[in-house]
Structures
1.
Amino acid sequence: MRSMLMRRILLFPSVTHQPAGKNVILTRWVLTIKRGAQGQILKHKARWVLCQGFRQQEEVEYDETFASVVRSTVSKALLALAAKYDYETEQMDVITAFLEAKLNEEVWVCQPPGYYEVAEKDETILACLLGKALYGPKQAPREWYSTLKTFLTPTDCERIPPDHSVFVHANGIIIAIYVATWARYRSCSKSSRIN
């Protein structure tokens, strides 16, 4: 919880009640146990999510939705090129992807269960303003893609016109994005570059 406050995921403005005309969305903890091959407990995981993201009102709490998903035909073509030109392929999950994306719209949520910041005057529980995306808001994948695009563009990566989920770097590295998962293709030798 402390890390969410430090990373500015949760903001507590000086209000004591639900803001007028704004929806306050319920949240919950998703608790999972990660187990090893023999069933031993490796670690306990907790993720705070919006459990009623469907209550968000279009044009009030979000303008548009978008999830960056590489097309299957483009993905198959990239795998075929990687096989033909002996490219290294690597897949990576961005574990806290949405937590890196700053929200542009106001999203009001209930506080996480078990953590309550109360107003000093009348002891009512405050609503939280999300500073960054969580899993659940309709605009979270769009904001994550925008953050990623802002990071990749200055590093000489360009989106290809047929599929905006694929970025090509000047040195031949190709990055295909599927929401919060990357597939990276790069040549093993300088002579095997695609022209």
Note: The two ends are 49 Å apart (CA to CA).
2.
Amino acid sequence: MTTNATDSQTPLLPFDTAPSESWFEQTKTWVQDQVRTLKRQVLTLYIASSDTRTPVACKVLCVVVLAIALSPIDLIPDFIPILGLLDDIVLIPLGMWLAIRMIPADVWADARQSAMEHEAGGGGRLPPNYYAAALIVLFWIAGAVWIVHTIWAWRHGK
């Protein structure tokens, strides 16, 4: 069985489970496991970012990644074809991968242990980040203002 480096119990491919399950059940179980692993890693990243042993550059990256991951508003709206899923499929996992690589191994191990204890205690969810949502809304407003200004200047020959 091929497994993830982060969780030895999670199959890497959806078809590495018992052959008695249907394709749909195998895929559903695999996706649920991957989502559970991603949620655990977000919680672990949150805990590691608040550790004093974490380097400042890594903390900044963690804050950006967590802000994008926990914001109730997407950086790129999902209704935009292909690009709408870019932040969910590429940006968040890539940012998490880079942040995890920057965190010292002992800090990551301690944070992962704390996250597992938090999950076992009935927690496991981080609150939505409304500050990040407000920042994303401001980003979109600034973009809209810039587009209107550019069109206005172009039409009036400035």
Note: The chain has a mean pLDDT of 79.
